[in-house]
Amino acid sequence: MANVQGKVALITGAKGGLGAAVTNAFLNAGATVAGVSRSMRDSDFDNSRFYAVPAELKSSDAANDVVAAVIERSGRVDVLVHLVGGFVGGSAVADTDDSVLEEMLEVNLKSSFFIAKAALQHMRKQQSGHVLMVGSRAAVEQNANAGAYSASKAALVALTRAIAAENVAFGISANIVMPGTMDTPRNRKAMPGADTTRWIQTEQVAHLLVSLASDEVSQVTGAAIPIYGRDL
């Protein structure tokens, strides 16, 4: 496994299907993890290198408070792994309510912008850091009846690449991974008849994120990395 021993990783959306896999992967690789979600508790992970930062990332002020709490406790932020996201679909663009677009931009794009902005201010002072986002295959391929979702994830790719370009001189990398459908309890419940053998295992996504957080691949930046498994 990649070396992230001693690094401080701020992981948003650290609970749930993907969140638990990513948090455990970073802990197992030796990182200290500050886990962020609305209902996060220290007891959610049985590891002395884990602590909770309960929060919602609905504004720059909220994101600044999260990063400040991590700095106060751990002294630095070496890795930002932003897992917060959501999906609403089922309607063509012509039939999609405006509230769906607002929701998708809020949860998939704005939260990413706020927490990245807050973390980058500290990473620039350190002259090092890794910013990691989780996008979707829908950002770059046809995805009928999920236009608002796809657009928000495509915007996240553009945001990540902008962060990479703006911060390479500060020793900061920024990358986004783009999984296909992941094998999570929520997806199994939403698609009970699907062939789950073709879905992406969350542990695979987690191990890739750990690798991208290691200094051994610090020159990989601005990448949008597909994770499609058997569903090419």
Q: What is the secondary structure topology, with strand pairs?
A:
Blueprint: E1 8-12, H1 16-28, E2 32-37, E3 50-54, H2 60-74, E4 79-82, H3 98-126, E5 129-134, H4 147-167, E6 172-179, H5 185-190, H6 202-212, E7 224-227
Parallel strand pairs: 1-2, 1-4, 2-3, 4-5, 5-6, 6-7
Structure annotation, total helices: 6
Instruction: Report helical residue fraction.
Output: 40-55%
CATH topology: Rossmann fold
Assigned CATH class: Alpha Beta
Number of domains: 1
CATH architecture: 3-Layer(aba) Sandwich
**What general outline do the C-alpha atoms trace?**
globular
Structural class comes to alpha/beta
- Strand arrangement within the widest β-sheet reads 3-2-1-4-5-6-7
Q: How large is the share of residues in beta strands?
A: 15-25%
Terminal-residue CA separation: 26 Å
Please explain how this structure is put together.
- Helices cover 41% and strands 16% of the residues.
- Helix 1 links the parallel strand 1 and strand 2.
- It is globular and about 50 Å long.
- The chain is an alpha/beta fold.
- The chain has a single domain, classed as NAD(P)-binding Rossmann-like Domain (Rossmann fold), CATH 3.40.50.
- The protein is built from 6 helices and 7 strands; from the N terminus they run E-H-E-E-H-E-H-E-H-E-H-H-E.
- Helix 1 packs across helix 6 and helix 3 runs parallel beside helix 4.
- The longest helix is centred in the middle third of the chain and has 29 residues.
- Strands 3-2-1-4-5-6-7 form a 7-stranded parallel β-sheet, with helices on both faces.
